[in-house]
Design a protein that fits this description.
Elements (H helix, E strand, L loop, with lengths): L59 E6 L6 H11 L5 E6 L2 H11 L5 E3 L8 H6 L7 H4 L19 H4 L10 E13 H7 L7 H13 L3 E3 L10 H12 L1 H8 L9 H15 L12 H9 L3 E6 L3 H4 L10 E4 L15 E10 L7 H11 L2 H11 L2 E2 L12 H13 L3 E2 L3 H4 L1 H16 L5 H17 L10
Parallel strand pairs: 1-2, 1-3, 5-6, 8-10
Antiparallel strand pairs: 3-8, 4-6, 4-7, 4-8, 4-9
Helix pairs in contact: 1-13, 1-14, 8-9, 8-10, 10-18, 17-18
Length: about 475
């Protein structure tokens, strides 16, 4: 695979900086033993008001990832659920895998799990071990607000696809709808008297203007370097076309050696080589890098639309948060400037061994109702996977920008699957290689070599389930 690329500016790498690696997140060991003490709740009578047949007396256990979205939205949805059904046991944690992996193995999991954060369980491993409940029954059920419309028909583009792993089964529901890209402050751009950069030459000029004012062009969370993929992957796709990203997802031989990958890695390395990256970024957490960004220490940060809520406490009133598509390379790009990575995120699933799986499906149906979806957006400044749920709402600056950027992209959407098909490879191998390159420890060619080597190892490892774009 090749593509015509005009811009080939290469600079010597910058001095090496410190680097912290991503904590290893291993696959779930072993299959479910089915050893739980609780007997499964039987399906009750199905009615117009209870189309899934939830046992109205059965308890429900919900575990929420306590991250950027918090858990109030879930508590509110649980209150709606409890108006018709049994008591809900609620808990929240940042340690999803640490706390729930033993319960999954023992066959005694909660009924609904919000599988988010750096300590999320590897959903592909769970699927391979038969530990996840198929959600098609939920998707084909009547929606909460209109019995003539199925749940499936209320969902935003890519939501169903993001829950599929090479088959017709839908294993998870990604509830939020995230716009990934280069997040920035409109106020900062106005102070520099520059426009949002559409090409890489313009990006270099903007970063140079920021540097002259004592401001870094970029920061990023080096402790979680896979954040860079939020802009790097769509940058690659924009340069070379969607087929380049699909080849990477499919673990095709030499996919990482495509000209578009090389151009993207060289462009990002140029940021570090020219000194446009905020000093200390390789050792920062996501919260630390966001705090520096909010303090006008850096202009751009690779992130998703949860950042507005997550960094709310430290965001200045005059910040005017916004997001743009990844800056393109030049006029040779295969896809237009507006091309964007936007997809359903914040995953939920119902364990196959759940005591009350039908209650779990109904809880997700409640979350997909207009009341819960609009409440989520009001509380956490994020879109949901429910079509039209944010229409007519008074949205904060970042979310207003994200909605406009998504709408401007039209059909030019990219949805990389490597992050969820091969979580460890994406987070540790790709993230680690990009982090080392941005810290000045290796050059782009070595970073690409590391990525391709890891892709080949993943492709040849029979213990790892493989997925393909169809």
């Amino acid at each position: 695979m090749t593509s015509k690329l005009n811009r080939r500016s290469l600079l010597t790498r910058s001095a090496a900086a410190g680097l912290l690696s991503v904590p290893a997140v291993g696959a779930l060991a072993g299959c479910a033993s089915g050893g739980g003490d609780e007997e499964s709740v039987e399906r009750g009578e199905t009615t117009d008001d209870n189309p899934l047949g939830v046992d109205p007396e059965a308890e429900l256990e919900v575990i929420i990832f306590d991250g950027g979205f918090g858990d109030q939205y879930a508590l509110d949805a649980e209150a709606i659920y409890q108006e018709s059904y049994g008591q809900v046991t609620h808990d929240k944690t940042t340690e999803i895998q640490t706390r729930l992996q033993p319960r999954m193995v023992q066959g005694d999991p909660p009924d609904v799990i919000n599988n988010g954060g750096a300590d999320a369980m590897d959903i592909a491993a769970l699927i391979r071990n038969g530990q996840v409940y198929d959600l098609n029954e939920l998707l084909d059920a009547p929606s909460l607000d209109d019995p003539n419309v199925t749940v499936r028909e209320t969902l935003m583009p890519s939501t169903v696809e993001m829950g599929q792993f090479g088959t017709e089964e839908v294993w998870r529901l990604n509830y939020a709808f995230t716009v990934y890209g280069q997040w920035y402050s409109r106020t900062a751009l106005e102070r520099l008297e520059v426009e949002y950069p559409r090409t890489w030459d313009e990006m270099i000029a903007v970063c140079e203007a920021a540097k002259r004012q004592g401001m870094a062009g970029w920061t990023y969370p080096g402790v979680y370097p896979y954040y860079f993929n939020f802009t790097l992957y769509p940058f690659i796709g924009k340069i070379g076309g969607v087929e380049v990203l699909q080849a990477i997802d499919n673990l095709e031989p030499n996919a990482w050696r495509h000209d578009a990958v090389k151009a993207a890695f060289e462009a990002y390395h140029e940021l570090a080589a020219r000194g446009y990256v905020l000093q200390g970024s390789p050792g920062m957490t996501h919260e630390e890098s966001q705090d520096e960004w909010n303090a006008y220490q850096a202009l751009f940060i690779p992130n998703g639309s949860w950042v507005e809520n997550e960094s709310r406490r430290n965001t200045p009133e005059d910040f005017d948060m916004a997001v743009g598509p990844p800056t393109g390379l030049d006029s040779s790009d295969a896809m237009p400037f507006e091309t964007l990575w936007a997809s359903a995120s914040e995953p939920f699933f119902v364990p196959a061994d759940a005591t009350n799986p039908i209650g779990g499906l109904e809880f997700l149906r409640v979350m997909l109702g207009q009341e819960s979806a609009r409440n989520f957006t009001e509380l956490v400044s994020s879109l949901t996977c429910v079509r039209g749920a944010a229409d007519g709402m008074d949205l904060p600056p970042g979310l207003t920008s994200a909605k406009a950027t998504f709408e401007a992209a039209g059909d030019n959407l990219l949805v990389p699957r490597l992050p969820d098909w091969y979580k460890q490879f994406n987070n540790e191998e790709v993230g680690g290689a990009v982090a080392a390159m941005m810290a000045g420890d290796i050059d782009p060619d070595e970073a690409i070599t590391r990525c391709q080597r890891a892709a080949d190892a993943t492709a040849s490892d029979d213990s790892i389930q493989k997925f393909q774009h169809v």
